[in-house]
Structures are given as C-alpha cells and as structure tokens.
Write a structure and sequence with these properties.
The complex is a heterodimer of chains A (303) and B (501). By secondary structure, chain A is an alpha+beta fold. Chain A has 12 helices and 7 strands. The chains are: A alpha+beta (303), B alpha+beta (501).
C-alpha cells in the first residue's frame, strides 16, 4: 500500500472517529418522544371466553364502537390466563398512550405535542407570575407549595413534572440527563431516576424541599394504577401501606357461582359469597386459602 | 515567538523615530490602545466586536419587578449600598466604559451624554459620546438627586485597559506610576476612551492568549493555592511575565492555550474593588479598609460556597453596613467565571466562547472566524446551543434556557423573602432589647444567607451557568435565614418568659 493511500485511509478513519465522538456528546443521551418499542403482537382471543367471567366488561365492550376490537389489543398474556384463570395468570393491561394510539393516531400524536409558549418549572411566586412574592410565601407559610409551585405544562409531561417538583418527593427523583429532561417525553422512569433506591422513606433529601406528595395526589397525575386502586383509595387490604402494593397479592375476587373463577371450593362455599361480591384477603390469608388452610378475609358487596 | 513576529512596532506605536533618536521617558512613544490598531489586520474580529446587541434595552434596571433583583426586596436587602441607586443588566462590550461612566451610582451624575438619550445607540470613544458637566472640579460626590459617587480606580480595571502602561501591579501607589488605587477617579476616568480592549485577552507582541488583570494574576499566584484554578487538575498553564520597564512592577500572564474561563474571568468574576470594613474591627463608623489597602483590589476566584469563609475569616473584608440591621454585608460583582468553572457544560468541554463568541462564517467570503460579538446565545442559537444539541430546534433551546432561569428565579425570590423576614426580625429584636450576643449571631446568619443569595443577583445568567450550584446556594440561603429568625425568636421568647417571672 502506498504511503498516500495509507495516509488517506488513516485520515478517513480519524474523521469518522471525530464525527462519532462529536455526535455522541449531548445528543447521544437525547430522548425523543418516540414511538413505543415494537412488541410481539398478542394473539387474538375469543371474546366470549373473557365474557364468561367478566360480565361487566361484556356489557361495556358490546355497547360501543370498540365492540369488534379484540381484548388482545390492550391486554397481554391472555392465552395463559384463559388456560388457567386466576390472579396468578392475570393479564397485563396496556396503559400506555400507544395502546389507544394504534388506531387513534392523530389523537395520540396531538396529545403527545409539547407546548413551548412558557418554560418548564415556571415558578408562580416569581414577581411577574400568578402568585407573586412577597405575598405567596407569607400567605402560604407552612405549606409545601411554598417550596415550588409552577405553572402547568403539557399533559404529556404531567407525571414527570409532579415527580421532580421540589415539594413532592423531597428531591429524591431527579432527571437522568439534567435539565435536558424538560424536552423529553415518554415513560417517567426512562427520564427520571431515584437517587435513593435503597429506601422508600418519604422525607426531604435536598435543602428547601418537601415530601408532600401522597397517593391521592397521583390520582390526577396518572391512572396507570387504576386496576390496583380501590374506590376512593380506601385501604381495605392489610399489609404494606405503601402506595403501589399490588392488588394481585392482596385481593382475591370471587364471582360465584361462576365455576371457572379459580376460587378454592372453600371460598366459593363461604356464607354470603354470591355473584357480585368480592372477598378481600391479605396476601398471607390468600396463600393459606389456596393451600386449604384456615382463611380470614372480608366479603364486600360490589356497588 | 508568535505570529506577530513580522508585524512592525510602528503598527501600534507612534513617535518611534523621536524615541529612537533620544530614548527616555520624555520621548516615550504613544501606544495605540484603540480597537482599530488590531482591526487593521483582524477585520472580522473587530467588526464583530463592534456590533451592538438590541435584544434588551440600555439601563435595564435590575430592581424592576420583572428583572433579576426585583423590588421591594432589592432596595431593602441592599439598603446602604450604592447599587441601590442604579443597577442595570449588561450591554455589549463596546458600550461598557460609557455605561459605567453614566450610571447614577458611579460618578454622582457628573458625566452625561452629549446628545441625551440618543447616546444609547452611539459607540466609539467615551468622550466623543459623553461630557463632564462639572469640568472645573474633580470632586467626587453626588451632583444629582439619588445618585452616588461610588466609583473608584479599581472599578475601572474591568471597564477599560487604556491606562495599562500607567498602572502598577495591583494599583499600588508607587513612584512613577501615573494612576493607582488611590488616584482621583474623576481624573482617571477623564483620561480613558475605550471599553474592553483587544489586548486585554491577546498579547499584541506574542500573539498569544493572555491575562492582564492584576487581581486575577495575584489570585493565581497566591501561595495558598486556594482558587478554583489551583484545584483544577487540568488547569491551563500560565507564565507570569514582569513588564516593568517604566520603573515599577507591571505583570501580565501568557496562557498555554486559550482558556476563556481565565480570559473572561478577568472581569466576569467576583472581585472586590472598593473600600470597606474589616469584620474584626468593631468600629464601623468609618471604613477600616481604605483604597490604600490591597484588599480593595482582590479576587477570591472561588465559588459561592467558599466566599463567606474567604472574606470573613481569611481576608477580613466586607463591603457595606446594612442601614436597617447595622450588620456588615457583602456586595458581589459578576461571578460568571467561577460559576461556570466546574459546571456541567464546562466539564463537557465548553468554554465561554462556545456560547458567547462562537465561530462564524463570513457570509461574503466564507471565511470562518471567531465572532467577538459577545452576546447571549439566545440570539445565535444555531451557532451555539445547536452545535452540540443538533436535534433541538431553536425554540427548544430557548425553552430549555428559559426553564432553568424560571426555576432559579423562583429560588431567588424565596431567598429574598426569607432574608427580608430576617431583617425585619433583627429590627424587631433590637427594639425589644434582645441581648447583643443574640443580635450578633443573627447578623452573622444574615451575612451567610446574604452571600448565598446576592451572588446570584450579580451573576448574569439567572443560574444558567450552573443550575445545580444556584439551587444549592439559594436554598441554603433560605436555611441560613430561617436559622437567624429562630435565634431571635428563641431569644425574644426567653426574654418575655424572664420578664413574666
């Protein structure tokens, strides 16, 4: 190889490396509000099989335009559930925007748009803003909103904005990429990180922050947990009081006299157990019941 | 040693023939300190330097409610300091000397524009634009209502370097040096013409990057080795050169490479440039540190967290006495360099130039040059932010900048609220006859909280240069104020309880 050719190749490689390093700086970490990852398409199921146990769903599903949309569009793991119905094989419900966006493209895309007409974290107690100081901090002295209280941003950002605000979680949740997060949209935990993953203690971690968030706040920030949240958020299970505890572990539903519900016979035969009632049991009790041991729990009549 | 090796001395010095025929101080050549001296060859650089930014107005008073240090806080928190007379956002470098000379706090209103408000568009030599309304006196005092005569020769070190050859190292009043820290500042001001000079950052002989600001050279050569630069394992090397051929010490420092944190850090730093008080001296009826003291030309070159200790315990200097509390306080200058020094952007390799004086392409010739139009990146987003963030739109870049600023400004307002409450509490406690020890402790808390806040009213980025540092500092300011309030609340409660017995 001649020296000229060799030098040319070296130069090209050097340029490629330089270009690579240039474009791997700030934007290598840039997250676009991109489409969801491609997942394996769930196999369609016979809806009648689902209706067999889920009478309310049948009523709702058959009344509207979604009547012909198969359950598998929004629920995963159906085959396993149908073959062995029960809490342990409970299907996953897709709560993402993309679940609806598969068909409602324009609606989803317009929803995902971000407004830039005012900044993120636009503190209301600035003197030019809605609740200016010196009044705000005096009039609200003692309340967590004096720590940080911002004007709103687009809906697509609302959960992230709630998680990072200084008054909510004491500063434990922070953006992975610093202030670039203000442009990022998508799943909250793709954008944020928990700086204190080894503890769930709810307290201020950084100066002049507050741990004022609670599970009810989150009802207006997301409904990802809709299936795991009892009416009014009543703590009708025993066990961990921490928000996010999974209903699957704590609750056993019994829709007697449907025989396929997977309830142990002892529960089905329990006095007062009839169609439309729910047996709430602690995790330990539920396990005990499944093993035919003594069980506790309380029967509730569904509204 | 440099690219100017073949540039003849006569390009920048006049009267050489006379001097060569009879060398000596009496035939000393004139050195051309104008921008045009360099602009003869560096056309694009000079023309870009001379550009003016109109993105915000002149004399944009910071204490407006929409601005960086809004009232009612500013005038209360800084009561007793000259900056309450007029305190503006910055303008382009080409206007910096004129803006300093006309500001109400500096020369008592004696220097006024010749053509009234049209001056805000005029650039060039200062005395082509301004006039001295009181030419028959050099008395340094307020001439118009609500003005102050707070300027002094050290202030001018960051407004011009026209006088570089007549100023001894640190402005010491030594024999032979025409100007010093103790000079009459009116006389010095009258002798100056140009704002920031090319040779402030570029050595005209060596054609190498340099610094000339004595306060910074002094900080970098302090035996303590306590500055941000000293603690930086990758710091840019400097070579300090003694230039005192005129019989007194002058120093410059050549840099091993361009380092805008140091070059811009000659002025965009916290420095002391005025007389004040030694906190160890109990007599605060008059200045205990006068302009004869080198502490009046001092660069800490530390970030905000080191300043309380630096000024109170190490140097022994505070700027002013607060009118309401009687406590000694500090006034920041513009600490952009220290704020940026260890910021996320700095760690990623950006310099001040990346955002403020980026590379540009001449539209006519296609030649790439460094723009010397030092301005906010908001007006040149494509050449600055989007170079490293190519997926962003200009709107997104602006949005990100504004978000950081909105958040930080919120924290500033909180800090001000609590400082204001602490001031009220000190006044109340004094009236209630709380013992001097508790008052003194509260005043110390006030100073701590004040330093952690005031830094950010002087720093010209609303936290953008280092958002993490801004948050930490401003929230800690609130903590310190609240501690001060508690000290006095406890003392007053105890006093009331004792009186009830």
């Amino acid at each position: 190889m001649s020296r000229k050719v060799y030098a040319f190749i070296v130069a090209v490689l050097a340029l490629a490396l330089a270009g690579g390093s240039y474009y791997t700086n700030a934007d290598a970490r840039y997250k676009n509000a991109d489409a969801p990852k491609v997942s394996v398409k769930e196999k369609a199921v016979k809806v009648e099989a689902c209706y067999g146990c889920h009478a309310q769903i049948k009523e709702l599903h058959t009344m509207g335009k979604h009547a012909k949309v198969n359950c598998s569009n929004c629920h995963k793991g159906l085959e396993k559930h149908l073959s062995a119905p029960g809490p342990d094989t409970r299907p996953v419900t897709d709560t993402s925007w993309q679940a609806c966006g598969q068909c409602h493209k324009e609606q989803m895309e317009s929803f995902m748009k971000e407004a830039y007409h005012r900044p993120a974290r636009d503190e209301k107690s600035q003197l030019t803003n809605r609740a200016p100081n010196p009044f705000w901090d005096k009039l609200m002295m003692g309340h967590g909103f004096t720590k940080e209280h911002n004007l709103t941003r687009s809906h697509v950002w609302m959960l992230v904005d709630h998680l990072v605000v200084d008054r909510a979680y004491g500063g434990r949740f922070q953006p992975k990429d610093g202030w670039q997060y203000v442009l990022e949209s998508g799943k909250a935990w793709d954008i944020l990180t928990d700086k204190y993953p080894n503890t769930n203690e709810h307290k201020p971690f950084i100066p002049q922050s507050a741990a004022a968030a609670n599970p009810v706040c989150l009802q207006c920030k997301t409904q990802d947990h809709i299936l795991d949240w009892a009416y009014m958020g009543d703590p009708i299970y025993r066990g961990s009081p921490r928000f996010g505890a999974c209903r699957r572990e704590l609750l056993h539903e019994c829709r007697c006299p449907v025989q396929k519900c997977g309830c142990p016979k002892s529960i089905r035969q329990r006095k007062g157990c009839e169609s439309g009632s729910v047996l709430w049991m602690s995790c330990a009790d539920q396990r005990a019941a499944h093993h035919g041991q003594a069980r506790k729990g309380k029967l509730f009549k569904l509204p | 040693m440099g690219k100017h090796a073949k540039v003849n001395c006569s390009n920048c010095h006049k009267g050489l023939e006379k001097h060569l025929s009879a060398p000596g101080p009496d035939t000393r050549p004139v050195t051309d300190t104008s921008w045009q001296a360099c602009g003869q060859c560096h056309k694009e650089q000079m023309e870009s330097f001379m550009k003016e930014a109109y993105h915000r107005p002149a004399r944009d008073e910071k204490s407006q409610l929409t601005n960086r240090a809004p009232n009612p806080f500013w005038d209360k928190l800084m009561m007793g300091h000259g900056f309450t007379k007029e305190h503006n956002l910055t303008r382009s470098h080409v206007w910096m000397l004129v803006d300093h000379l006309v500001v109400d706090r500096a020369y008592g209103g004696r220097f006024q524009p010749k053509d009234g408000w049209q001056y805000v568009l005029e650039s060039g030599k200062a005395w082509d634009i301004l006039t001295d309304k009181y030419p028959n006196t050099n008395e340094h005092k307020p001439f118009i209502p609500q003005s102050a005569a707070a300027a002094n020769p050290v202030c001018l070190q960051c407004k011009t370097q026209d006088h570089i050859l007549d100023w001894a190292y640190m402005g010491d009043p030594v024999k032979g040096a025409k100007w010093s820290r103790t000079s009459n500042v009116v006389d010095l001001a009258r002798s100056l013409q140009h704002g920031l000079s090319c040779f402030t950052c570029h050595d005209p002989h060596a054609a190498k990057p340099r610094i000339v600001r004595d306060g910074l050279i002094d900080a970098l050569t302090r035996p303590d080795g306590d500055t941000l630069w000293h603690k930086d394992p990758k710091r840019t090397g400097i070579r300090v050169i003694e230039m005192g051929i005129r019989g007194y010490t002058r120093k410059i420092a050549l840099l091993d490479k361009y380092d805008t944190r140091l070059q811009c850090g000659q002025c965009h730093v916290e420095y002391n440039c005025n007389p004040g008080y030694d906190p160890k001296n109990p007599d605060t009826s008059k200045y205990s540190v006068t302009m004869a003291d080198r502490r009046t030309n001092h660069f800490p070159y530390k970030d905000v967290f080191g300043l309380y200790d630096h000024y109170v315990n190490k140097v022994g200097f505070l700027d002013f006495k607060h009118t309401l509390t009687g406590g000694l306080l500090w006034k920041a200058q513009h600490p952009e360099s220290e704020t940026f020094y260890n910021s996320k952007h700095a760690r990623a390799g950006a310099g001040c130039d990346s955002c403020h004086t980026p590379k540009m392409k001449d539209k006519k010739t296609g030649k790439v040059y460094t723009s010397h139009f030092a301005v906010t990146p908001r007006v040149q987003l494509k050449e600055t932010c989007l170079k490293c963030h190519p997926k962003w739109t200009e709107e997104q870049a602006r949005y990100t900048i504004d978000s950081i600023k909105a958040y930080t400004k919120g924290k500033m307002r909180k800090a001000e609220f609590w400082l204001s409450a602490l001031i009220d509490k000190i006044v109340e406690a004094k009236k209630a006859g709380v013992d001097a020890g508790a008052i003194k402790k509260a005043q110390d808390q006030h100073l701590r909280a004040h330093v952690l806040w005031e830094y950010w009213t002087a720093e010209n980025s609303d936290g953008f240069h280092n958002p993490e540092m801004a948050r930490e500092s401003l929230t800690r300011s609130v903590d310190e104020s609240q501690k001060g309030i508690k000290i006095l609340d406890d003392a007053m409660t105890a006093k009331t309880a004792a009186a009830a017995k």
